[in-house]
Amino acid sequence: MSDREQFLISEEPYYREVHKEIELYEAAYAVRMPLMLKGPTGCGKTRFIEYMAWKLGRPLITVACNEDMTASDLIGRFLLDANGTRWQDGPLTTAARIGAICYLDEVVEARQDTTVVIHPLTDHRRTLLLDKKGELISAHPDFQLVISYNPGYQNLMKDLKQSTKQRFGALDFDYPSADIESEIIAHETGLEQEAASKLVQIAHRGRNLKGHGLDEGISTRLLVYAGQLVAKGIDPKAACQMTLVRPLTDDPDMRDTLDAAVSTFF
Ligand SMILES: Nc1ncnc2c1ncn2[C@@H]1O[C@H](COP(=O)(O)OP(=O)(O)OP(=O)(O)O)[C@@H](O)[C@H]1O
Ligand SMILES: [Mg+2]
């Protein structure tokens, strides 16, 4: 299997459009604009990029960034083997060579010296310097860089530099409206709309507590978990406690408040 085929998404991912993000993404891709997907955890960013890669017929290479990541983890490094040294491309280099969409998840976690390697790729140059190898590659015409960014999480110390931010167009993501979110939960779990809509209403109660004792609201991802358990025949109250309450907080008062919200509906 070629590199390109290996990263192609063969089956259509289920994605329910929320605003006009599909059209906006297609227009941005047409001019190969680097994009930033902004929004809280579990609101559909990863699912969206999988869907768009499928729709555009482009390979998708995803990299989960973390604070220990070095530029070499993105670009590549020399490896030792029986025949001596051998260069191995990193995921960003592979993406630039084969014309993939490269999705850097949580890029703000990476150190700044790692972040700057993407600069020449995200302006008119569209190049990537493999400094250790002494090679300058020009990105394939189909290549696009996409990063995700959760505005709530990081403290100011860990923000991206303006010179990085201002290389990207940005799409805002958030939890969808109640109707659309219920539709998503029903689709993902096989639950009836009515039960799905109850889960969404519980999430709305929880989301109102953001900033009042909770750092993050109940995500769409957690609602899918809850729905999956209920669809398996688990008592809805127990399912909600396990997926919508316990993961969010250890604070006994907050747990009581959330448990009470669950009891209103189940
Ligand atoms: N618009 C949507 N269409 C279809 N499914 C969705 C949508 N939004 C959320 N989901 C569901 O929510 C789940 C979580 O979404 P996803 O993994 O894309 O979140 P994320 O924004 O990438 O989160 P994180 O920032 O933690 O990576 C998906 O697996 C999917 O089941
Ligand atoms: Mg994600």
From TrEMBL:
It comes from the Bacteria. Residues 181-264 form the CbbQ/NirQ/NorQ C-terminal domain. Gene3D superfamilies: P-loop containing nucleotide triphosphate hydrolases. Residues 34-168 form the ATPase dynein-related AAA domain. Keywords: ATP-binding, Nucleotide-binding. The keyword ATP-binding applies. One of its GO terms (molecular function) is ATP hydrolysis activity. Belongs to the CbbQ/NirQ/NorQ/GpvN family. This is CbbQ/NirQ/NorQ domain protein. It comes from Nitrosococcus halophilus (strain Nc4).
